Amino acid sequence: MTNETVTTTTAADSADPAPEPPPHGLGVSLPPADARAKTEGTFPYAADLWAEGLLWAAVLRSPHPHARIVSIDTTHAREMPGVRAVVTAEDVPGTPLHGRGTADRPVFAAEVVRHHGEPIAAVAADHPDTARMAAAAVIVEYEVLDPVIDPEQAFEAEPLHPDGNLIRHIPLHHGDPDAAGEIVVEGQYRIGRADPAPIGAEAGLAVPRPDGGVELYLASTDPHTDRNTAAACFGLSLEQVKIVVTGVPGATADREDQGFQLPLGLLALKTGCPVKLTATREESFLGHAHRHPTLLRYRHHADAEGKLVKVEAQILLDAGAYADTSAESLAAAVSFACGPYVVPNAFIEGWAVRTNNPPSGHVRGEGAMQVCAAYEAQMDKLAKKLGLDPAEIRLRNALATGDVLPIGQTVTCPAPVAELLQAVRDFPLPALPKDTPEDEWLLPGGPEGAGEPGAVRRGVGYGLGMVHMLGIEGADEVSTATVKVHDGIATVLCAAVETGQGFTTLARQIVQETLGIDEVHVAPVDTDQPPAGAGCRGRHTWVSGGAVERAAKMVRTQLLQPLAHKFGMSTELLQITDGKITSYDGVLSTTVTEAMDGKELWATAQCRPHPTEPLNAEGQGDAFVGLAFCAIRAVVDVDIELGSVRVVELAVAQDVGRVLNPAQLNARIEAGVTQGVGIALTENLRTPRGLIRHPDLTGYALPTALDAPDIRIVKLVEERDVVAPFGAKSVSAVPVVTSPAAIASAVRAATGRPVNRLPIRPQAAVVTGQ
Known about the structure:
Elements: E1 3-10, H1 35-40, E2 55-61, E3 67-73, H2 75-79, E4 83-87, E5 97-98, E6 105-106, E7 112-113, E8 119-125, H3 128-137, E9 139-144, E10 166-174, E11 183-191, E12 203-208, E13 214-218, H4 223-234, E14 241-245, H5 258-271, E15 275-278, H6 281-287, E16 294-302, E17 308-320, H7 326-335, E18 345-354, H8 368-386, H9 390-396, H10 417-426, E19 456-469, E20 479-486, E21 489-494, H11 503-515, E22 520-522, H12 539-567, E23 574-577, E24 580-583, E25 589-591, H13 592-596, E26 601-607, E27 626-639, E28 645-655, H14 662-681, E29 710-718, H15 733-751, E30 757-758
Parallel strand pairs: 1-29, 2-15, 11-30, 13-14, 17-18, 21-22, 28-29
Antiparallel strand pairs: 2-8, 3-7, 3-9, 4-8, 5-6, 10-18, 11-16, 12-13, 12-15, 16-17, 19-27, 20-21, 20-26, 23-24, 24-25, 27-28
């Protein structure tokens, strides 16, 4: 796999050669501070934690997707030697329900089991094997019920939850319902259940406090929300619960399952001892939320020139047993149902419903990924019916700044959709593989593939995607940061969790840029700090990075004001470069250390983006703070006899606002594209009759380095979003959203088959009668 940046354009290109970048600060590929420790295996993750007098925990989970609990007998488990505590729903002293978006999920099932793997009880013992055996010794009598696994049946089924089966319905009405086009294409599409599949399974340590509270050491991505939930369930005040964020082993969603955290804390409170829980891979699959499986029905109207006239769609999200963040995911799906295209008339119906399938929730690009696969398939159908090049029909309808989304919101941020598409379209295509034995590894199926070169067809396809940044529909996005400087060393305190997105590196660069101080440390995160929100949707680059910048600028003013006053000039006439303070006229020249004169300077600041509003009864409203766009051209080789697919190359063009760390940005795009390859071809968590089948990394096939194609980053458009700190945009989610649609488009081009579901099954790529 290669990652090649070919061109970078800015809003105002200059003929003059770019100046040499500074040795540190923004725009430089500053390496992560923890890179060496992670590479050498010495970085402390949650699974590495230890405490004196440690007990081990295990959780008993339901083997059924739907059942009534007749009785729970913990007697045998409690009597086992080495067992210190067994907890069930009766032992939850506070609020028994929790949930990321909607609190509708019990800590332990008490009367009804609603999905496979739902927690029933938890055990603490002096050895992990003892804990697991004791959990298995808890006797639960079930009355097994028929599960509701088809989301379309959920509308007529008996209520699975006291809140009913319908979580949210969004009817979007935009324009003239009687509008019609000369050309009409229809399609039905299905998106499978994908799992975030974190590299490291969930683990944590709970330590009781002298004040009757508890400290939780977790790989949390949203520690303050997790702290608030835990305190409510434990019946404690917020001051009695503290969450310390340990090393996060990667996160492409809400990293920690709250149903994992809460039994851990309850056991520590009940035993008065530290308790550790390390989930198996199976427990990880059973516990955390997955991407929403989605059923989509579309009808596109276009005129004879290929201009879109109207889009009609129905979108049904399978939320699984509990609501989680399904309401927000549905809003994104409905809002982006037409894609980054100008659509004067749109009528979209969206539903999110409960079933007895595993719970769904926030996974990178939620809602947007599912609809992207469907609307791009529709664009391919229109191109074929009109006899147009697939890229051309997309160009004729591309969204631009100033256009209006189907929700009625005007696009005020940079939206260079046409420029991105032209960049990937015009990029040279990869060479065809040579038909020789030495190049057999290029065939779909790999070096030992059974295919024949004569059965291989090459296809080229396109995908245009868009995502929202930050929270939506009135979410209060705010972050707080403190910057301290003493003895030439700066320290940043911010509760923004480093999940692999590079925030700690960015925070260092911001302070270096603003204060000219080379040595910058970012303090570990815990809930004693003010909240910074969840680590998703690019919010820490925007909101937390903005808070760090404001705090650093306040410290800068404190540093420069005495010098400016002494020399009779304003602080704006002073600059800090490479640790030196100089005036515009050269009269003043000193170092930052000398100017500090042993003092400690510090400042705290907040960043809060402009407000948004909920969608109204017709799906209209200014729901988003900002948008990001991406274009991808996929080149695939398909063995039309076996149905095997090899992604040869993905050419990517993306609007990034501003490149803050080139190496980090390229890595994030590359990772997102590769994740999209898995969604397109291999990742499918199978749940026949609501039961998770093969909950392991053998049954759930993630793409490896051998599956990753050549990734060519052919253009990064740096047109700064004026309302965002630094003008930067989120970069990770939009390639995840776009690459599956582009790969499916290329398979359609190679085979002529419709390819109407993801992941693409081999039978969908087989061409008969050749």
